[in-house]
Amino acid sequence: MKSKISIWTGFILIAVSLFAGMEIRQLVSKDVVDDQANKFREDLSLTEKYYVQDVDSKKLTEAAVEGLLDKLDPHSVYIAPRALEQVTEEFKGEFEGVGIRFTIRNDSIFVVEPIGGGPSARLGIQANDRIVRINDSSSIGYKDDQVRARLRGPKGTKVKVGIYRPGEKELLDYEIVRDKIALTSVDVSLMMNDGVGYLSVNRFSDKTNVEVAQALVQLKQLGMKRLILDLRANPGGLLDQAFEMADLFLDGGTEKTPHKIVYTKARRQEFDQVFYAKTGQPFEKLPLIILLSNYSASASEIVAGAIQDWDRGLIIGETSFGKGLVQRQFSLKDGSALRLTISRYYTPSGRLIQ
Hints:
The chain is an alpha+beta fold. Helix content is 35%, strand content 28%. The strands form four sheets. Strands 3, 4, 5, 6, 7 and 8 form a six-stranded antiparallel β-sheet that branches. A hairpin with a 4-residue loop joins strand 10 and strand 11. Helix 6 packs parallel to helix 7 and helix 7 runs parallel beside helix 8. The longest helix has 49 residues.
């Protein structure tokens, strides 16, 4: 009887010790964070009170957050409210506006390309056109967020632009009716020859896997017996879209050896994940070649890594970028967001490519 009591007592003591240890660690961690937050608050207050000229506390705080994340890794970033809308649109795969990709050089807005099927493309706006006027006001010196604020807007609304085009003597005036613009993931889907299908994918957004599956069905109807999947310069995107794309080409394996697509390891166990393939897709035996370049990253490398590790297809091209980190986006109260690296991902054979 005494031995039973001592065993149970031991268990209780161990449990209490573990719980107490966890509580102490949490308290210590909270104290450290509170101390550092108070230090920053004091520094900001002194700067605002005594600096030689007026300061913008919001900008200083954003710069401090960016500096904090800069000490972590290149993929942990702060997203200001003004940039969050654009980031969200890229993952959603659609936005409402005039339908151009642009860049700013020497204080001028240059059209990189009109998005196919969009209102600008339909009007004949061309790559390398320079937008010098928006709604009768000069647009010289505009920043990115100013351009988006003026060109994007609800479907059906109108905006006027004045364009300088090399070779034209006078400015070209266009009135553009804004529309819903689809940012498609599939650039090209076509049959080459001898039953070879070609599919180029430029991103991994919300609808990527749906677009790819639809394109594969269409190519199969056209006689596809082999596939070239082009992921060159694809920077990646959503993790779930990567394993769903890989699952199109991998069967589930056996009960003893299930086909793992990718798995993640984190400091916090709740972020550990394992993704397995499922049997049942019509393309699991389709001969496959994947093209990669130095700029193929993240989700592209998950797909290629799974295909390579299970010897399911051939990888051709250049050594890929090497991004093996997973980010989660946390929304902040002021409309900004924190995209923080929470785990590392590994290919089925256990390779970390970071």
